[in-house]
Design a protein that fits this description.
alpha+beta; 5 helices; flat
């Protein structure tokens, strides 16, 4: 709009004084996406077309028996269970870049908007997965009596979430590790996803930054913070949250990549001329599927912010 002219003088802004289209774009912030870091894509290469499924054979439990001299040996006929991974979800974007918009600016609008669409796609898929898979955690890895061997750990239930504070949050992280230990989950590559409010508590806790395994690199786009008790910590705004009474509660997850399988079957981006106007259409499709294939490797911590 320009400066307001004095009374009785015309405003020439936009007439004799040209408008300038900046070649710089306002920086845009995106939610951190963690799915690629916490899941596995072991079966992605076996998918060929929309609607396919992958039948994943599980390793059966082989029975070990006591042996006595000269006894007749019992024969086991192992039966392998099947887990089906369906590729049954899809998301797309479809936008137009008008020719006039391209000529009014010296920035590559189409490239920038395509990058934005790609980031938004990742965020929406992360949200889709993170807000439901917690429910498939093994029955011994959630609730008020978690722990396969002991049932000694309260991880919260609807109506009575655990209350996390900077004084006890590290204890709960250790408890999650013990719950996975009781399921014999491998210690390497374990992860926890927490909302920012609880990541802040960790930074204020007794261990503070000394507990985070600093490796000299900045926090990546996947929200990686560091490590505590064999867990790599990730911060995400995409976890499921809801009011439980008057408390805002979160379903936070801990686990191992063996828990969640994710497969993207079609990732396609194309550009074509629009039929009804002067411009280019840019559209993209991502068809995917996910499943908790090993519930024993997944924990659900249902918690709210405590008063302290």
């Amino acid at each position: 709009m320009g400066l307001t002219p004095a009374a009785g003088h015309p405003n020439y802004s936009g007439t004799f004084i040209p408008e300038i289209w900046s070649s710089r774009l306002l920086v845009k912030f995106y939610e951190a996406t963690v799915l690629a870091a916490i899941s596995n894509t072991d079966y992605e290469g076996e998918i060929k077309k929309h609607g396919d499924k992958v039948n994943i054979r599980q390793t059966p439990d082989i029975v070990i028996r006591d042996y006595q001299k000269a006894e007749t040996l019992k024969i086991q006929r192992p039966e392998a269970g099947i887990v089906e991974l369906d590729i049954d979800k899809g998301k797309y974007f479809n936008f137009i870049v008008e020719d006039v918009d391209k000529f009014q600016s010296d920035i590559k609008i189409m490239d920038d908007w395509s990058r934005d669409a790609s980031e938004q796609m990742k965020i929406e898929i992360d949200k889709d997965v993170l807000q439901v898979v917690y429910a498939d955690a093994d029955i011994h890895n959630k609730g008020a009596a978690a722990g396969l061997k002991t049932g000694a750990f309260n991880l919260g239930v609807a109506g009575t979430p655990v209350e996390l504070t900077k004084a006890n949050i590290l204890d709960f992280i250790v408890d999650l590790g013990t719950v996975l230990d009781e399921q014999s989950v491998p210690e390497d590559r374990r992860w926890i996803v927490l909302p920012p409010i609880f990541c802040g508590m960790i930074k204020k806790s007794e261990l503070k930054d000394a507990s985070l395994a600093g490796d000299g690199t900045s926090i990546l786009r996947n929200g990686r913070l560091g490590m505590i008790d064999r867990f790599t910590l990730y911060s995400s705004n995409l976890l499921y949250s809801a009011l439980d009474g008057s408390d805002l509660c979160f379903h936070m997850m801990a686990g191992h990549p063996s828990a969640i399988s994710f497969a993207a079957q079609i990732t396609n981006t194309e550009t074509l001329r629009a039929e009804s106007t002067f411009g280019n259409l840019v559209r993209g499709l991502n068809v995917y599927g996910y499943k908790v294939v090993k519930p024993q490797s997944l924990c659900d911590l249902y918690a709210t912010k405590g008063a302290a």
